[in-house]
Write a structure and sequence with these properties.
Helices cover about 45% and strands about 15% of the residues. It is built from 15 helices and 12 strands. The strands form 2 sheets. It has an 8-stranded parallel barrel with strand order 1-2-3-4-7-8-9-12, surrounded by 5 helices. Helix 4 packs parallel to helix 9, helix 5 packs across helix 7 and helix 13 packs across helix 15. About 45% of the residues are buried.
Length: about 400
């Protein structure tokens, strides 16, 4: 598999020359400066592509060309936004960029409650505490009917937390859940927004009356609309699984399980409609057998995220070291290397792979990198996964 790295553009503290030195081959990035819903021009795409190539790297994957909320909830501007999306895809195709990672998660891209959960060795990683997330939903967001969406024992924990939660802790929870984890990835909430809670509630209101069945139909509508341009330019769309793979904030989530993925692939049964196999997101759900899913969906996987989680019970999970957790990355390296070989034998393309959500180690904390995207932790993860891949290549010779 191609070793790629998520890079946040020319302003990223991690430079392309640094990435070249640690064995990165391809870059995963986006035009982060373009507002959601606006067209990516050929000129802007080529400018960034040429810059990446000047360092001896290639722009392997777009992550992400954002799908606007109005496409997801089928607002009146949906068709215009899809038209813009199609033009952006065409421009990417003209520039030779053929793999597009996106998600169809309403409002919230990904959720954690602690961005620096400490391990005994002094490193930190991302953590999800279900009770604290419920506290945010019930006590801070005050979403109508939220208590009914959580088990009784979690609601009881929320009441206990309410006795001791300080204003600073409440602020940190809001910042972590809807600001810091969202703003650097073309999110709906940005650092500097004056009233993030009010804005967030307004976004949730847009999905009133939208259930799982309706969100599925909206996704099908979007995919059917863009498949012709994908076929014309040989562009592979690969949806990212929901993170975490559970319903949150009363919103429908439609890429959580093997059944969900089967539905999505069958609803628009086109080889250009595929999957980003994120072992981290999928392994955070106790219902998911990650290895079985990799075997089942390998032929429709266009991009692989090699990371792993440990499920701790009670809805809690933590990002695991890349050699551990429920992701079983050694076996995934085996499955996807075999799939890549099958494609190459049939004149197909290889599979780009990136590590992410590595532990923060050494100077990562000092440098204030984006959550889950430190340099040293990901460099270690890339070395570990690269070793797995080398061992698999050797055993398959």
């Amino acid at each position: 598999m191609e070793k790629t790295w998520r890079w946040f553009g020319k302003k990223d503290k991690i430079t392309l020359s640094m990435l070249r030195q640690i064995g990165v081959e391809g870059i995963v990035t986006a035009l982060h400066e373009v507002p959601n819903g606006e067209i990516w021009t050929e000129e802007a795409i080529m400018d960034l592509k040429n810059y990446i190539e000047s360092f001896g790297l290639r722009w392997s994957v777009v992550e992400s060309l954002p799908v606007c909320e109005a496409i997801k909830y089928a607002g009146p501007e949906r068709d215009k936004l899809i038209e813009n999306y199609i033009i952006s895809l065409e421009n990417l195709g003209k520039c030779g960029i053929k793999t597009i990672c996106y998600n169809f998660m309403p409002v919230l891209d990904w959720a954690r409650t602690d961005l620096k959960h400490k391990w005994d060795d002094g490193s930190t990683s991302l953590y999800f505490d279900y009770a604290r997330f419920a506290y945010f939903d019930i006590k801070i967001l005050e979403r109508e009917g939220a208590e009914k969406d959580f088990p009784a024992d979690i609601v009881a924990k929320v009441e206990e937390l309410d006795k001791t939660m300080t204003p600073e802790e409440k602020h940190d929870l809001v910042y972590t859940i809807i600001v810091k984890t969202q703003g650097f990835v073309n999110g709906n909430i940005n650092e500097g927004d004056k009233e993030p809670i009010k804005k967030f509630k307004g976004l949730l209101d847009l999905y009133k009356g939208i259930d799982k069945a309706q969100l599925r139909e909206n996704m099908k509508y979007f995919l059917n609309a863009i498949m012709p341009v994908c076929e014309k330019w040989d562009i592979n769309m690969c949806v990212h699984p929901d993170d975490p793979p559970m319903e949150v904030l009363g919103l429908p989530r439609i890429v959580r399980t093997a059944e969900d993925i089967r539905w999505m692939l069958n609803a628009v049964d086109n080889p250009h409609n595929g999957l980003t196999f994120c072992a981290g997101s999928l392994s955070a759900g106790e219902q998911n057998d990650v290895v079985a899913m990799a075997n089942e969906f390998a032929s429709r996987t266009h991009f692989v995220h090699m990371r792993s989680c440990n499920v701790l019970g009670g809805g809690n999970f933590i990002e695991a070291p890349h050699t551990g957790g429920r992701g079983h990355l050694v076996e995934l390296a085996r499955i996807f290397t075999k799939e890549e070989r099958r494609r190459n034998a049939n004149n197909g393309i290889g599979l780009p792979m990136r590590v992410d959500h590595g532990k923060d180690i050494l100077d990562d904390a000092v440098n204030d990198y984006n959550p889950g995207y430190g340099f040293y932790g990901r460099m270690l993860a890339l070395g570990l996964v690269g070793g797995m891949m080398a061992a698999v290549e050797d055993e398959l010779k």
